[in-house]
Design brief:
The complex is a heterodimer of chains A (112) and B (114).
Chain A: E1 5-7, E2 10-13, E3 19-24, E4 31-37, E5 43-50, E6 53-56, E7 65-68, E8 75-79, E9 88-95, E10 102-103, E11 107-111
Parallel strand pairs in A: 2-11
Antiparallel strand pairs in A: 1-3, 3-8, 4-5, 4-9, 5-6, 7-8, 9-10, 9-11
Chain B: E1 4-5, E2 10-14, E3 19-25, E4 32-38, E5 45-51, E6 56-59, E7 62-67, E8 72-77, E9 86-96, E10 99-104, E11 108-113
Parallel strand pairs in B: 2-11
Antiparallel strand pairs in B: 1-3, 3-8, 4-5, 4-9, 6-7, 7-8, 9-10, 9-11
The chains are: A mainly beta (112), B mainly beta (114).
Chain lengths: 112, 114
Amino acid sequence: NAGVMQNPRHLVRRRGQEARLRCSPMKGHSHVYWYRQLPEEGLKFMVYLQKENIIDESGMPKERFSAEFPKEGPSILRIQQVVRGDSAAYFCASGKGLNEQYFGPGTRLTVT
Amino acid sequence: DQQVKQNSPSLSVQEGRISILNCDYTNSMFDYFLWYKKYPAEGPTFLISISSIKDKNEDGRFTVFLNKSAKHLSLHIVPSQPGDSAVYFCAAKGVTSGTYKYIFGTGTRLKVLA
């Protein structure tokens, strides 16, 4: 059973470009969470999704950030018009229910 | 407002001795707590968890203690091994902003000296 997969592992974007981060949950997992880790900081909750539904996006910046978890395919975290402050490691986690979270290896976004 | 706090950013322990990592929380409604270990350039790996109805959970070298009255939990690793050197995050699950979610601490970097 493959673990949570994220791609790309590293992403470099110029200011103003779009970044798309993908997360494939473990088989059978219907809950997906996205977190952001800034340098020297902990993991900050961004959004919690179930298939085709956004359950809680209270941690997402109001502008430029969006997330989806379609019926088929991976969950996507999309950042439009990236700025240098978006540079961080983005982790997704999946689980069957609320009492488990298995993390992927993360995507390190660098905005130049 | 940091609801989950790990006040020690780093800790060094001699191999074979006990490592104690601490975590404090402010929300008495948190009902489930987890510890994760994270190596550089990898995602966090689940270590051990505890429900709020318990005060101790043990798994091999790892034991988590929960003191609800003090809103404090700790992770004990004994004996500590060099491979335990990593950043350790505690996380608490509870309802915030209307839904269940996990709140993470800022992490403690453990270094086990050979």
